[in-house]
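User: Could you check the structure of this?
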Amino acid sequence: MTTDILAEVEPYIAAVTGKKAENVVLLDVRGLTSIADAFIICCGNSSRQVTALADHIVTTLKKQGIRPLSSEGLEDGRWALLDYGHVIIHVFYESVRAFYDIEGLWSDARRIDIAG
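Assistant: Sure, the predicted structure tokens are below.
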């Protein structure tokens, strides 16, 4: 089942890891919520890097014809949320990621570490 979700989100993972995102985690939330199948969580070391990561992800996926349904926080640099429907990408500044603890909130989800 892990390979199924990895195949489904491969373009998203490639976009996230293509710009040196750190601590990339994939949460398989299928069966836990109807809002998405997967959350991809990553972080950057500065607000500038968070913004650059989010911009890179949007641009890379757009070139493949994949456009977000909505996005939040792209200019702020603390937490960008990119909603692609079945995949939601969270790009955090490291301290903000620890504060919101998305992985802890979704502790029932299967966690898949992604090198990147």
